[in-house]
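Worked example 2:
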Amino acid sequence: MPETLDQEVPRPRYLISDLCAYLESYLPPEQVREVYRAYLFGAEAHKDQRRLSGEPYICHPVAVARILAEMRLDYHCLMAAILHDVIEDTATAKEQLREEFGEEVAEMVDGVSKLAKIGTQSHTEAQAENFRKMILAMTRDIRVILIKLADRLHNMRTLGVMRPDKARRIARETVEIYAPIALRLGINSIRLELEDLGMQAYYPWRYRVISEHLQKLRGHRKEVVNGIEETIRNRLAQESFHCEVSGREKHICSIYRKMREKHLSLSEVADVFAFRILVDDVDTCYRVLGAMHSLYKPVPGRFKDYIAIPKANGYQSLHTVLVGPRGQHIEVQIRTHEMHQVAEEGIAAHWHYKSGDEKFPPTAAMEWVRSLLEVQKGSGTSVEFLEHVKVDLFPDEVYVFTPKGQIRVLPKGATVVDFAYAIHSDVGNQCVAARVEKRLVPLRTRLRNGQTVEILTSEDARPNPAWLDFVVTGKARAAIRGYLKQLEEDEAAELGSRMLERELERQGNTLDSIEADRLDAVMEQLKVESLRELFIQIGLGNRMARLVAGALLQEDIGSEGEAAGQITIRGTEGMVVKFGKCCRPIPGDPVIAIFHPGKGLVVHHQNCPNVLDERRADADWLDVQWAPEIQGEFDTALRITVSNKRGMLATIASAIASKSSNIDDIRSEELDGTTSTLYLVVTVRDRKHLAEIMRRLRRIPEVMRIVRDLGR
């Protein structure tokens, strides 16, 4: 049966008079007047607009401002909240806001405003581009995301007027992006409501089943909770503690998540009772914990000290699970009043204590916000950036230590490489090995709570593309991809430069002899911004060097399918020159190269069957030659027919190793009961080295035939 949304429930209507009356409780009169002035401007801008519910549009911005006012944010933020849709939904320009309300308010409103959608963009691309814009604005002023969260919260409260398909899309986006952001910023009150409203819209029947189950239990639970609460109060009074004790009901989304993660039934999760104890200072937190453990027996392994080691979002509290009077589990959280305010309001709580115009409260959450800048630099597209950020929005965390005892908080499943990038991007890029608890471990090792990790680096090291298979943090993934992309561009630029110079030399010219005006005209015609970009496009195969050379020399040099001069292959070009996996050419082989746009040159043996097909298809190909001196090793393939004998593989491996070669891959295929064919990929320096290996293998009596495999 398809899930449908519940009918919209009655909701409060926010009036500017109510908002101003509330603001007078913590803002001076002149600042309240400024907020009211912003309201008059916004009401005029939105005067002809109405929401789907039928109410005047200005009711929404006022509601957003009220949510932020309850977090006691400053008047500039409240003004921006009231004006947050005027750039996006009215004819108002950013410059007009700047003149009317100042730079600070205008920048916040612009940060929340969506970009005008480009016709060729998909919804996913537009969403990602808008998200990237908002995140970059948030790194300059954290209040941008606070406004966006309040905006999303009010939209979720009024989601019932939306079409079911659109409501589900908005709900999913809320649960996947905005609720986790609220969690990372420590704004628990908004996060919990976003999660519950998101689940109510996305899984309405599941939400209703859990809600109705809790309703049935409520009467019995209230009696039990009151009894336990009274017992706790009496014990704390006996110990002369001055505390606030409150029982609380778990949120529906939290219950559903625990059911899925731990494979529990609804009755098992609903059986847990939760209590919160607020005290005046940190010392009292630990003394109250002792009193609780003497009152009820603690459950082993269920105690967590987030005061000594706070969560990444700054959350601090003591958590313990006790066995209650009837055998039921009791969750108890113990924290100070200030910790509780931070737990509920997160980064917004710091506006209660901040002085001056500081926009960056010094919290762990802000460190995450700043790290997003590094993620953004390493991300190629907005969609890729959004994927990287989503990775970092999961709440499960691992706490590990540096050799100097500093704590680093990483997502669950983080590896040694993730830890290295958490220290610094340069440390990650130069990472070569690691010690965990003073023992060398592989770089893909996943970290556990409490481990001490030391990273070993080398100035000559660089990121390995294989790391992308196991790193989990967005920062690590973005840094590795960014480095590899830069490396590929550097190598493509160097190769493209050589290819263009070779083409010009064939015409009796050099790049230095080309007049600057002619060079600029060709780059403008080809729509490239720099000579480096032109080299990169040639090196990646997106442009043919001979056509660019012809344009520079103002000559007609024919079609792209015609043959060009030879290019020298050094074997050190990296990612922009690849060697065909079909024929695996090695130095000394006659070779040609095929252009693959966006990838560069792929070098093949001239007798490779695949190359013959591509040449017949008039593909873009070039004659290439090996440089006189080549360092390094190259893979090549052998096909060996042997008689079946115990230990045959070991004998062949030993023979290959005796010639200073390694086996990179091996597989066997039985022909009949007495013979088999072995397919090997071995490393060689050149054709001479390969000949030495093959001669050594032929001396093995059981080797019946050996040939080089150039593909089929």
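DSSP finds 27 helices and 20 strands in the chain. Residues 508-626 form one domain.
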